[in-house]
What does this fold into?
Amino acid sequence: MNKLTLIFRCEKLEQKYQDSRYLYTLPTCRSLNLVSFLLCLFRSITFIFQNQMVGFFVFLFLTIVVLLAQFLILNNKRKWVDYYLLFVNHFLMLQQQYVEDEFEPQEAFVFGQNQMLLSIMIILVCDFKFGLIQILGNMIIKIVISKYYQPSLSYQTILYSIIIGLMFLYAILKINQQYRLSFLFTTQDSQQEQLIPLLTDSPFMLCTYDKENLQFQQKFSNLQHHQEFKQYKTNHDALNFILRNYLVHGQSFEKFLLSRQKKQDDLIVNKILELKSINKNQVQKLFIRYSECFITELIYILIIDKKRQEIQNLQQKLVNYEKGLNKFQINFRNFIKNQILILDKSLNYDKNSIYKAIIKLIYIFSKFNNKKSCKITNQQFLLTFKKYAKLYSQAYDQKKIKIEVCSEVKDILTIENCLDDFMINFFTHLCKTKAEIIQIYLCKSFSQQNEFIDIIIKVDVMSELYILLQKSTHFRRILKTISPHDYVILNDDSLTVRLFKNMNEINQLNSFFIKANDFRQTK
It folds into this structure.
């Protein structure tokens, strides 16, 4: 920062300061503009009644200037605000030549005081270089006009005016210097808050103990930037939860930190603390890299070591996976042997048994598909539907499945891996009923600007099929992911299973509602 002009050497920093200064300069200027507009309008109307056209045109011109300043400068050109205030202040100074003879002494004193306060207010909200011009201009204009209208003005009064003006200039210099230093301190402080989280991607806290309020206060923290701590309203609440709900060395973490207050000569640096939750039903561990430093007070640095915690969790998962894999290999080997025996025996009977065995294999293999996906893919709905209908018709030849298809039903945009799972469960439950003739009609439908594929089923035993589908929790769980309902729609002469035709639109709509709800909560 330049000691004379007080301008920051860094252009970006200077621009940030000017932007922050406009936050209080612009409201002051708008208030001044409003008062000026009302006064000029009032004076121009007064001059009309007094039949003083010169005064009327002067104040009419000033009224127009104020309006132009409001719409052109304050709303569009912020950088012109200081020049506008410079013009206003010099105009106020020039009013000195209109001192009216009929002014009473006290009235003149009050008028002068008001002019002085108005001038000081403008100087304070302007940048220093503009304040410097206004103070020097005030001294020169004041002395020149006074000397012109009163030649007998003493040199003592002139010297006194110059000294007071320079003293005021020095005071404005120090005030603006403090403005800028305060801005610089705030900016550096906020930059530190932004910089510290960049040093580590783990949750961290810098806290101190407030002896007056008898509680720990966080200085810097990024806890709320991490998913596991977003449930807390503030970082302070998250800190209190960790301090009071986790144990270290058999005592609460809060008591441990309090005990460290008495040991400031023996600071701890980079020690790994293993914390355990107080909840006895489910023990959770928290690994914290703990350090202390003393500047003006004891500062506790707490960094949650998520990587160490993840490594330990992964090691435990690997042990569990190894046990589960060994158990799965044994059971799957026995399962394959049994299925081979079933298929071998089926060859001695009929083809229906073979297809039933194939269906059972497909159904069982679908249970082993642990791949969970939310990806929306374009799938050939009609081909998949007909493929499963043919397979189940071959397995259950005593049932006749008749399918009618609307020409528009071909593809479907739905969740990956869900369509096959839905088809298996749908046809399995359909063939469990006593119905011999099953009529299915596939068509498109619209509801609330959403497009659906409706599977309309007509069977003799409508109630039986309805109860069967409604009781199947697995079928309804699948239906809930790809359908607007987790239930089957019961009509007078049919059942309808409704599926989303384009789930991309549904996801976009859901994201809109989520953003809307977040906006309401922030308000």
